[in-house]
Specification:
Belongs to the peptidase S26 family. The active site is at 127, 182. InterPro entries: LexA/Signal_pep-like_sf, Pept_S26A_signal_pept_1, Pept_S26A_signal_pept_1_CS, Pept_S26A_signal_pept_1_Lys-AS, Pept_S26A_signal_pept_1_Ser-AS, Peptidase_S26. It is found in: Membrane. The chain has six helices and 18 strands. The protein has 320 residues and is an alpha+beta fold. The chain folds into two domains: 2-111, no CATH class; 123-318, Umud Fragment, subunit A (Ribbon). The strands form four sheets. Strands 1, 2, 5, 6, 15, 16, 17 and 18 form an eight-stranded antiparallel β-sheet that branches. A five-stranded antiparallel β-sheet has the order 9-8-7-14-13, with no helix packed on it. Strands 10-11-12 form a three-stranded antiparallel β-sheet, with no helix packed on it. A hairpin with a 2-residue loop joins strand 8 and strand 9 (204-205). Helix 2 (28-74) runs antiparallel to helix 3 and helix 2 (28-74) runs antiparallel to helix 5.
Length: 320
Amino acid sequence: MSALTGALYAALVIYLGGWLMDKWIGNFALLLLLLTLVTFAYWLAERLYFAPRRRQAAALYETQEAARRAELTRQGIKVDGDVDDVKGRLLIQPWWLDWTAGLFPVIAVVFVLRSFLFEPFKIPSGSMIPTLQVGDLILVNKFHYGIRLPVINKKIIANHDPQRGDVMVFHYPIDPRVDYIKRVVGLPGDEVSYLNKQLKINGQPVPVKPEPDYYVDERRQYEQAFEEDLTGVKHQILTKADSPAGVQPFNGFPFKDNCQYSAEGVVCRVPPNSYFMMGDHRDDSQDSRYWGFVPDENIVGKAFFVWMNFNDLSRIGSFH
């Protein structure tokens, strides 16, 4: 068993090492599920087999040692040594159980919390500036949109439907192994138009209010800032005055025929059980304008809180 455990740890190190070195894209949900199942198997084996055998061996040693000592004492021979020391060594878990069965309760708690309650994410790009900054560590509510089975992401208990203005994490439709974060702009059945950098929902312009230009640190330049009001959810958006309004869509995404592209921008009709997503950094965000709609089965959860940014502690707090 020690050799098997060593092999499993070696495989884990190789997998994590390749993931960190960008040799492949890791699947943390699947990895956590496998770790939970493997450590549970060890934990069960420990409780039902290995621990009883160690206790049996310790009890047998204690019985035999007591008989041996009684016989030596009868013969007038003094016996040194502590029986409890040997018993303690017999009862100690070997390293391969300590590092598997012993970790099961912790891994199981993390698995439940991450799969069904809250999941942490790190913001890797500037597509949601100024709402979210590069390096923000955020929490995502996994049950707000319904309870889903881990790994396969199948909804088993419905809860709230996504609403316009929600900041949502989802599996990228082009490559579901990658998670994206954008703002919900269009709901199923909506007509969403973004022409000449003006957003309209079902023909109605989304209210915006000009604000002072915003300095984007990573770009080292000022950009136009506006307060946008998506059905009561007020948030800042940024645009670049010199960026073209039109976009170049990806080829062949599902329901592409629902969209019409021009030099002025794009007009899309959101299909059933799907959502139109946009970044708040409008001219620096690859979103539904480029790669289409996010189906309901790709939803991960609702982002709601920055719990840490090591470069700027003032970032900690909730957001809209």
